[in-house]
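Hey, I'm writing a tutorial for new members on how sequence and structure tokens pair up, and I'd like a real worked example in the thread rather than a made-up one. If someone can provide the structure for the chain below, I'll link this post from the tutorial.
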Amino acid sequence: MRITSEQIKEIAYDLVVVGGGMTGLCAAIEAARNGAKTALVHERPVLGGNASSEVRMHICGASASMVKPHLSESGIVHELMLANKRLNDSYNFSIWDAVLFDAAKREKNLTVYLNTTMIDAYSKKGVVNNVECYQMTTEKRFFLSARYFADCTGNGTLCSFAGAKFRMGREAKSEFNEPHAPEKATTERMGNTLLFKAVDKGVPVEFVPPVEIIKFTEEQLKYRKHCAAAPKELAQSISEDEFERLFGGYCPDYGYWWIEIPGESDNIIEEYEDIRDLLVKAVYGVWDHIKNGGDHGAENYELSWVGMLPGTRESRRIECDYMLNETDILEGRTFEDKVAYGGWPIDDNRFGLFAFDHIPSETFAFPECYDIPYRSYCVKDFKNLFVGGRCMGVTRLGMASTRVMGTCAIGGQAIGAAAAILTRNSCSDVRDVDIKKLQQTLIKDDCYLRDVFNEDTADFALNSTVTTSSEQEGYSGSNLVNGITRSINGASNQWRSMAGADCPQWIKFDLNKSARVELIQITFDSNFNIEKKITLSSRRQKEQVIGIPKELVRDYEVALFKEGKMVASKEIRGNYQRVNKIAFEPTLCDGVKITVNSTNGEKCVRIFEVRIYEEKE
């Protein structure tokens, strides 16, 4: 059937984001919230990419599975996790899908195209003009034009279609002087994985493979931890977290990342379907070995879910203005144009499932974090094209760290913020963004950037006098305006009311002059020391706390005062988010008071920052 003219839609946007994984979703939401008319094109029916119910990989990031909890990502990805935490203590991935769907749909400046595949991109002289997309559910074809485009496809598909340069495989050591690079460039790459979930039924459960399988022996899987009964001597010299990362998990209830197949050709993308077919045989083969190949402590376990959409680690990497590399990461390099950061180790899954005599991953850890420069998101030789996620501007070994979804998500948020600023200033080139303005926008929107503090001249709180109802030593009210919104380098950077003191507790800001206040922004403590991600892993689930973080303020009131008289107030109940934005009709006032009536369980009130903004001209 031919597509009729009525089924062809031409629509213009400020920003078109292609790819609705965590990178693209955060980019699209951030751009829309900052005023850019945005489109999000995603070929799947659910958002989240590898974090969605179709793949079910949990979101890892700079905390390195809570080895460095103070580096946990904040911003939109944290907001989404907190929204999920409120609803979903059973780790139901369908609920998680709905949380992501709702977050996108609530943005008035964002149009979401699900089940929509970009089939071509049209560019000329370094400018992408539009992308052609087909939505299979409606049989409509869309030609989406925009000032700026963001490739968040993972595979770098938009960039490839537009003619951008890209890389595959490992660079030679001579190119970037990376310590763990090979002497000569190779086509070696990380592979794709299918996950599964099993449940303990409490009684013995038989397993008969439903498909043709690959048979595995205990000798073949000796370096791939797959049961509680495996040799413990392998773990004697390293931590449990490191052991899990290198060999896989302990319990037979959670699919193993090491069921990983990289394919054989020079282009892993072209092999995707063949790799998937082989992965199906491998997943059921591994489970058959666990169930029928000896005592693996899984007699009562039954498969409850097996993925059919492989999660991809590596394919193209797009050439950008700066290629972040392994040396930058291991040395914790800083950049003047930093817009994101990473902390996950160099986690190079060099050896796939069938390399039985090798540990499947080489891991190189480092202390603290590294900066990611804006230039690594700007596609080389293109004026209006960003790239984010695992296909960003990074070398093969650099990508072994930056590829994790927490890092990708905050990079996506940086792209979205940049696109909105560029739109407001009618810039023709993504390189024309004011980096300081971009950095200040990101930290206002709850992103962490190392050594970047709140210097927003529009924030009346910075020049106000702060008084409190009570405070603990080291947690004074002055911390509310020190420009830092997390505990770092031994400093708390938050106000805490006196331990054990009953609510209500309050903080008051006396402004240095009257202002027509219309927005109060508060950053509460959501406790980065406790994991909040949705996960299949029972071990990772047990590390979490049921319910909303008790440290979060739950019920409070914000009041505006003029010459000692209250002129406006708002009451908030049932808060579950780290960042709250309370909007008022522009009200002339000279004081702001926040009174906390209850927390979600903590015995003292914890707040990192308060910002106060006047009516925009």
